[in-house]
Amino acid sequence: MAETCEAVDHDALRQALDDGRARRAVMDCFEAAPHLDVKGSPHLFLPGGAEVHNPGIRMHWEGGKPGRGPLVIDADDPSVYRDLLTRAAAG
Asked: Could you read off the pLDDT of 38-51 as tens digits, one per residue?
Protein backbone atom coordinates (compact mmCIF):
# COMPACT_ATOMS: atom_id res chain seq x y z
CA MET A 1 0.00 0.00 0.00
CA ALA A 2 2.74 2.45 0.96
CA GLU A 3 4.52 1.87 -2.34
CA THR A 4 1.50 3.27 -4.20
CA CYS A 5 1.54 6.56 -2.26
CA GLU A 6 4.02 9.13 -3.57
CA ALA A 7 4.01 10.99 -0.23
CA VAL A 8 5.32 7.97 1.70
CA ASP A 9 8.96 6.93 1.82
CA HIS A 10 8.10 3.24 1.66
CA ASP A 11 11.69 2.07 2.26
CA ALA A 12 11.92 4.12 5.47
CA LEU A 13 8.49 2.87 6.56
CA ARG A 14 9.47 -0.75 5.90
CA GLN A 15 12.66 -0.33 7.96
CA ALA A 16 10.76 1.31 10.83
CA LEU A 17 8.20 -1.50 10.91
CA ASP A 18 10.84 -4.21 10.59
CA ASP A 19 13.06 -2.90 13.40
CA GLY A 20 10.12 -2.07 15.70
CA ARG A 21 10.99 1.57 16.36
CA ALA A 22 7.32 2.58 16.10
CA ARG A 23 6.15 -0.04 18.60
CA ARG A 24 6.68 2.22 21.65
CA ALA A 25 4.48 4.94 20.14
CA VAL A 26 1.74 2.42 19.37
CA MET A 27 1.90 0.97 22.88
CA ASP A 28 1.87 4.46 24.44
CA CYS A 29 -1.37 5.20 22.57
CA PHE A 30 -2.83 1.87 23.63
CA GLU A 31 -1.96 2.38 27.30
CA ALA A 32 -3.25 5.97 27.29
CA ALA A 33 -6.69 4.94 26.03
CA PRO A 34 -7.98 2.00 28.10
CA HIS A 35 -11.53 3.32 27.67
CA LEU A 36 -11.58 2.50 23.95
CA ASP A 37 -13.79 -0.42 23.00
CA VAL A 38 -11.58 -2.10 20.42
CA LYS A 39 -13.66 -4.49 18.34
CA GLY A 40 -10.81 -6.06 16.39
CA SER A 41 -8.10 -5.21 13.95
CA PRO A 42 -8.14 -2.88 12.27
CA HIS A 43 -10.23 -0.59 14.42
CA LEU A 44 -9.44 3.06 13.77
CA PHE A 45 -10.14 5.89 16.20
CA LEU A 46 -10.16 9.37 14.67
CA PRO A 47 -9.91 12.82 16.23
CA GLY A 48 -13.27 14.04 17.45
CA GLY A 49 -14.41 10.60 18.57
CA ALA A 50 -15.20 8.99 15.21
CA GLU A 51 -14.27 5.34 14.89
CA VAL A 52 -14.49 2.60 12.29
CA HIS A 53 -13.88 -1.13 12.55
CA ASN A 54 -12.73 -2.94 9.40
CA PRO A 55 -13.13 0.07 7.11
CA GLY A 56 -14.41 -0.82 3.68
CA ILE A 57 -14.99 -4.47 4.60
CA ARG A 58 -18.33 -6.26 4.49
CA MET A 59 -18.11 -9.72 6.01
CA HIS A 60 -20.07 -12.48 7.64
CA TRP A 61 -19.37 -15.59 9.66
CA GLU A 62 -20.31 -18.74 7.81
CA GLY A 63 -21.60 -20.24 11.06
CA GLY A 64 -23.86 -17.21 11.60
CA LYS A 65 -22.19 -16.12 14.85
CA PRO A 66 -18.79 -14.47 15.35
CA GLY A 67 -16.14 -17.12 15.87
CA ARG A 68 -18.38 -19.93 14.64
CA GLY A 69 -17.20 -21.18 11.28
CA PRO A 70 -15.03 -19.36 8.77
CA LEU A 71 -15.06 -15.60 8.34
CA VAL A 72 -16.07 -14.69 4.78
CA ILE A 73 -15.14 -11.36 3.18
CA ASP A 74 -18.08 -10.31 1.01
CA ALA A 75 -16.62 -7.00 -0.22
CA ASP A 76 -13.46 -4.95 0.19
CA ASP A 77 -13.49 -1.27 -0.79
CA PRO A 78 -10.01 0.25 -0.30
CA SER A 79 -11.24 3.67 -1.44
CA VAL A 80 -12.41 4.38 2.14
CA TYR A 81 -8.83 4.94 3.32
CA ARG A 82 -8.35 8.23 1.47
CA ASP A 83 -11.42 9.66 3.21
CA LEU A 84 -10.31 8.33 6.60
CA LEU A 85 -6.82 9.81 6.24
CA THR A 86 -8.26 13.15 5.14
CA ARG A 87 -10.63 13.20 8.13
CA ALA A 88 -7.86 12.23 10.55
CA ALA A 89 -5.49 14.88 9.19
CA ALA A 90 -8.17 17.54 9.47
CA GLY A 91 -8.56 16.71 13.15
From this structure: 887 788 888 888 88
Same structural domain, 58 and 84 = yes
Q: 81 and 42, same structural domain?
A: yes
Decide the pairing of beta strands 57-61 and 51-53: unpaired
Q: Number of folded domains in the chain?
A: 2
- Pick from 4, 28, 7: which is nearest to 86 by CA? 7
Question: Structural domain of residue 18, as residue ranges?
Answer: 1-35
Q: Measuring CA to CA, which residue among 72, 38, 34, 33 is closest to residue 52?
A: 38
Q: What are the tens digits of pLDDT across the range 57-82?
A: 999 989 878 878 898 999 999 999 99
Which residue, 63, 86, 60, is CA-closest to 72?
A: 60
